[in-house]
Write a structure and sequence with these properties.
heterodimer, A: 257 residues, Elongation Factor Tu (Ef-tu), domain 3, Rossmann fold, 2 domains, globular, B: 4-stranded antiparallel beta sheet, 9 helices
């Protein structure tokens, strides 16, 4: 159930250059969030009229908190990074469809692939999946959140610069470590998701990928954030679908990248 | 006793607040946040005779105190709209204004004819002002002769009262406003978005895939208020005012400038509860200023 909630910032930390972590008291949103869902974050400076879509890294129902890990991508997220603990901000969420946790069972080997700022929502997912988890995290250079994944399964790192792990992409790491999954869960840049989609198709396994697109409303009304689909979409009645509502997580076979 | 009701072309609205077409879908997404029955009317996303795919992404971009959009009037077509959206809206105690779009006069007329006699629809709003489609849309709305002609044809075909939605991308809004009135329009609504462009110097590229988009939000409000004032002074039919309304005070600017009704647009994206806050705020203003009838404020400064 979507809620509008005024959330209190509990902490704000820079995890890596330009990557920030915000913990917020948001009892309503945390109580029903599914891994892969997102929130719209209202920017306090009203000249920024659009809220910013940020994926939920983790939701803690018991504490009534959510954790957002975001990258400074423009003026709105730059302003977000200046908010101090004790500040209240408006959230709408949890929004969209998250990852299908019931797509695995105890015998499944899941490959969890994250690239850059696509990594955060995979943390909540990795903790929630009840199966063997092989986690591949790709970075440009500097690592973040990697230690948080340690309790979830085997971790494989790739970096563009080669400063950590395999030098290259997540696909290079998957190939080098000969990971043979039954299912893939991914979030990251489009070029990575295309590669994941291709890999899944080649292996004949399902892949659930989380897409990113510029949004205005985040709730399905504005039709700003669409992705092309091979089949006619039920809601739009044309060959595209809303990332914010039917996604952001899609079966990779249901979208054209 | 506060009376917020208004009447346009014989249609009674419980209050003078609706939503701008394209910012509210058919209300389905917003009914999780607000009671649609509180609105004077729900104005739907533009609907065409057949499904439209819309433009490539990116379709939206933020600008200072505003945003650009180039959705391209993506819509499921009149068949799905009548089977799904109108029955949904019939479940609420509010008026329904159906926004109609087309590439050609015949396409507009096809939608108008399908809705002929449909009592679920209170009024039609004809979008002759969308800047994001190559044919139809704004190309109809900038030429007074075309505005007159299409208004006349639609009036002949429609059973419901007709609102012509005007573009601000003209030299003199009074001319197109008058042309709509002369063509028989029951009301006019304005402003649609102002054509704009955003460029990313780092990427040396247009931000929107469509290159240009429609500018909306508080950034355009002073332009919109001025145009509503000019148009309301030029015609004798009711004016529905919009452009950057995000609170009651903004809405009252338009009402004082001559608008009988107002529409909340992009602000629905900022906060899905905006439209009900605007309604509450207008009521609060009326109490504070001892205004009994909202109609007494309409055009106060004209």
């Amino acid at each position: 159930m979507k809620k509008k909630e005024r959330a209190l910032i509990i902490s704000q930390t820079e995890l890596a250059a330009g990557i920030f972590e915000m913990r917020l008291a948001a009892p309503q949103i945390s109580s029903c969030a599914v891994p892969g869902q997102f929130v719209m974050v209202g920017i306090r400076d009203e000249s920024h009229i659009l809220p910013r879509p940020i994926s939920i890294c983790e939701a803690d129902k018991a504490l009534g908190q959510i954790r957002l890990v975001y990258r400074i991508a423009g003026e709105g997220t730059r302003e977000m990074s200046t908010y101090l603990p004790g500040t209240s901000i408006d959230l709408t969420g949890p929004l969209g469809k998250g990852y299908p946790l019931d797509a695995v069972n105890e015998d499944t080997t899941a490959l969890i692939v994250g690239g850059g700022i696509g990594i955060p929502p995979l943390l909540g997912l990795s903790k929630a999946l009840n199966c063997t988890r092989k986690i591949v995290l790709g970075y440009r250079d500097e690592l973040f959140l990697d230690h948080d994944f340690e309790s979830c399964g085997n971790i494989y790192i790739s970096t563009d610069t080669g400063s950590h792990g395999v030098k290259g992409t997540v696909m290079d790491a998957i190939s080098q470590y000969q990971i043979k999954p039954d299912i893939i869960f991914a979030c990251g840049p489009l070029v990575m998701l295309k590669a994941v989609k291709g890999f899944a198709a080649e292996k004949g396994i399902p892949a659930f990928i989380s897409l990113e697109e510029r949004m205005a409303c985040g709730i399905g009304a504005c039709l700003g954030c669409v992705v092309k689909t091979p089949e006619r979409d039920n809601h739009s009645n044309v060959n595209n679908t809303r990332v914010c509502t039917e996604g952001p997580v899609f079966d990779s076979r249901e979208v054209l990248l | 006793m506060i009376d917020m009701s208004v009447e346009i072309a014989g249609v009674r609205f419980k209050n003078p607040v609706t939503v701008a077409s394209g910012t509210f879908g058919s209300g389905m997404e917003y009914c999780e946040f607000i009671d649609l029955s509180r609105l004077g009317a729900v104005t739907t996303k533009g609907v065409a005779a057949v499904p439209w795919e819309g433009n490539p992404v990116p379709r939206v971009a933020e600008t200072p105190s505003g945003m650009l959009n180039a959705i391209g009037l993506q819509n499921p077509g009149i068949d799905v709209f009548m089977d799904r959206d109108l029955p949904f809206l019939a479940g609420f105690d509010t008026n329904v204004i159906v926004n109609v779009c087309g590439h050609t006069e015949e396409e507009y007329l096809a939608v108008v004819e399908r809705l002929y006699g449909d009592t679920r629809v209170s009024m039609l709003e004809i979008n002759i002002s969308c800047p994001n489609v190559r044919e139809g849309g704004m190309s109809f709305g900038t030429d007074p002769d075309m505005v007159y002609r299409i208004t006349k044809r639609i009036k002949e075909a429609a059973s419901q009262p007709v609102i012509m939605k005007l573009t601000p991308n003209v030299t003199d809004i009074k001319l197109t406003a008058k042309a709509a009135e002369d063509g028989g329009a029951d009301a006019i609504s304005l402003i649609n978005t102002l054509t704009g462009m955003k460029i990313d110097p780092e990427k040396r590229a247009f931000v929107l895939a469509n290159k240009t988009g429609g500018l909306s939000g508080p950034a355009i409000r002073p332009v919109a208020v001025r145009m509503v004032y000019e148009a309301a002074g030029a015609v004798n039919i009711p004016v529905i005012g919009m452009g950057g309304i995000s609170c009651a005070s903004d809405a009252l600017e338009f009402i004082l400038a001559g608008a009988s009704m107002v529409s909340v647009g992009s602000a629905n994206f900022s906060d899905p509860e905006t439209v009900t806050k605007v309604i509450d705020g207008i009521e609060d203003y009326m109490v504070r200023h001892k205004v009994e009838k909202i109609k007494d404020l309409t055009g106060y400064l004209l």
